[in-house]
Structure formats: structure tokens, C-alpha cells
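Suppose you are handed a protein chain with no further information: no name, no annotation, nothing but its sequence. What can you learn? This example shows the usual starting point.
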Amino acid sequence: MAVQGDRTAFRGDRIMSSLCPSGIISRIEANRTIKDGLQAAVGHQRARQRISVTDLINPMQAYFQRTRPDIEMPLERLQLLWTGTGFHRTFGAAVSSEEFLEQFLEKDGVVGKVDIYEEIPIELKTAGSLPEDLIAERPYYVDQLGMYCYMAGVSRGAIIVYRREEFGREPALRVYRVAFNDIDAIGARMIQRRDRLQHALEREDPSRLGQCEWWKRNCLYQEICPCETCGIDDRIVDPASVRVEEDLALTGQLADAAQQWRVRPGWAVTFNDLVFPRRGVLQRTVGRNDDQDDDNLADMQRSGFFSALTEAMRYGEPGSYAGVSVALDTVRGVVRRYRDYPTIIRTTNTYQMIERDRLQNERPYWLDRLAVETALVEQLVGRLVVYYPRLPGGDKFMVYDIGFKELESTLAEARRRIALFEANAAPRDFPACGPEWMPDYCPFKANCACKE
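A reasonable first move is to predict its three-dimensional structure. Written in C-alpha cells, the prediction is:
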């Protein structure tokens, strides 16, 4: 892509206005100090103080999580946790409402959070496959839901299993209705496990805890735990006392609700709309037009992963992040500062790190967003954090400090786009959203002019 002047680049015979033309970039420097700090921060796990339902699924693991915080989870496994945590939030928000999400329960000295609790407790799980026999293949899912039902004083619940999109596998949902015949027996077993875990922590001796589900399955604590000589606990939910049925109707209803995610008629214009203006218009008018009904589930997974990753970074180093409320004409937003620099965090599934001299051509929209946010807080240096989940090992971060010569043209172009939104301009009246490969993967491509 050739650059001409300080605001205009050409692609074929069509002019594209840029929020961040290369002429305003003064330097791109890799910041190793910040990179190493973030790498350490995301691996730090905060210890739980109270015994939770999750602890009682695998008390042995819970014991060592509390007593050996020096043993940290590798990034490869943290990524799976972030995927699950983030998908819970995005999917839950799409199919339910705020007052029913992550409902706190407490009973008999045990605490827990139910993913969705409207009429019945509903647990959402992410997995690599959909179980055909839930009790045989995922008994710990049933144990967890059973404890929540006991704590809530109900005998029925549901489990939603989401199969992750990965390795070319399509995402999918399956819903199971679960009915428990003996809630009191579940409560008694929960209390027994609670007591054993409490005693183990007090005695600093886990030998009387049951063998962990993760024994010989790449457990972090396998070299130090006594699972090899421990007995196997009875299940909290007796398989003979529970009935599980797949609910095809509810599966379809949830899939339909997920398809409405990110349908945004009437929503206020955001800074992301200014970076991807044609997509912003089409989200408010025709909606998605991709062929795969499951694409929104995959988008939820990616969005959820990003949300959980950024939260791990923000809370891993308390006090380092601060939000600044900003406005540009009618657009409102928040600029995140990390150690006093405006900072954006991005992920990409490439198998190699993008060299800094290729960032402008391969990910121009990252620099567009950073330029807008940096201009709005009246600074000339912004920070770009890139996380590469598909890179093997633990070296997945790159951090760039990007200097700008001047940003008046960025704000002028942003204001021009805001005016187009307010005038209800057609998609083709806006600049194209990104580099030449982007339209091939856009869910709005059938109504967009980017390929013309």
C-alpha cells in the first residue's frame, strides 16, 4: 500500500482516508521491561479465602492451590481458563439478563456462583467435545450442579456444554436437563468434603483427601501430591439418584439468542466504529450475513477470551491500569492507561510474531485505534500490547511503544467519520475497514463495498 501526503493512501483507483497514516509515526520500539512484567502478572493467581463449590470438586487440587502458590499455571493452560471464563460472560449476557448472571450462593460454610439462575440453576461449561453420556463422561459437571441445587433448595437444574472452536472444529452447543432425587444426600456429601478440606489445611496434611480428577492428567501438583496412594472419593451425586435428558428445544432457543448478539440498532457510535466504519453501519442496518449459524458462537469465544486476558493483565498488577473518560464530539469512551501510557491490548492467531516494520501494513487498524486514543488524552506516545495465543511455550507477548509526530489529522478524520454516521451515510461513503484480506473474512461482506 503506497502512502501519499499525510492522510491519504491509494488502493486501486479508490481513495482511503486513514486514521493513522505512516507519516505521523515517529518510532516503534519493543519494550522488553513491560513485556516481562505483563508475562509475570498474568500468571499470578489470587488465592481464595473461603471454601467454594469448585474447591470441593477436587479438594486435593484446592489444597495445593492454597499451600503452594509458587507453582504457577503455564500460559497454555491459562488460555483455556480465559476462554471458558470469557465465554461464560459473553454468552450469559446474550441469553439472559444482568440480574440472573453469576448468582452468589452460600450454605453450610460453602460459597459458589451459578452462571445463570432464573427459574433453575444453569451451569455453562466449555469443553473440547460434547459428551454423549453426561454422567459417565463429565460426572464432575453433575456434582457441581448438584451442590448448587442443594444450596438453592431446588431439585432441578441444567448444564450447557459449549464445544470450543479450535483446530478447524466448528463450535456447538448442547443443553442437558438434570433432575436430582435426593438433594439432602448431596448436601451431606458436600459437608463431608468441606470438613476434610478444612482439616487438611489446618493439619497441613492432604493425605486423607480423595484422589484428584487430574491425577495422571498433566496435573500441576503431581510431583508433590499424595494422590497415588489416596483412595477415590464417592461421587457427590450418586449416579443412580439423578436423571439427565438432552433438551433440544432449549438448545435451539439459546442458539437463536446467541445469533442476536451484537445486533446494535440505535446504539451510540463507538471508537471501534470509527476504526471499522462500514462494519459499524452494517451492524445497525442489515446485520450479519455470513453463511454459518455458529459464527456468533465463535465470535463470543474470541471476544470472551480477549476480555478474560485483559482482566488478568489488569488485576495481575494492581494499580497499573487506570481508565480515563474521553469524548470526541458525540462519541464517548474510556482510554485505558498502563503505567501512564494510553494502552490497547490485541490478540492475533498468527503462528509467528508480526515484525514491527510490518505492523502498519498487516494490522493498520491496531494503529488507527491507538492513534485515536493517544490523541484524545493529548499524548504523543501510545502502547500496543499484542498477545499470540497460538505460539508454543510461554513467550506470547510483544509490547510496542509507538511515538507519533502529530495527531491533529487523526482527530480531523475521526470527526469526519462521526459526521457521516450522524448523517446516516451509506457504507460505501465511508473508508474501507482494513487491509485487502479483511473483506474475505467479514460477516458483512455481502452488503459492503470493500471488495469493489
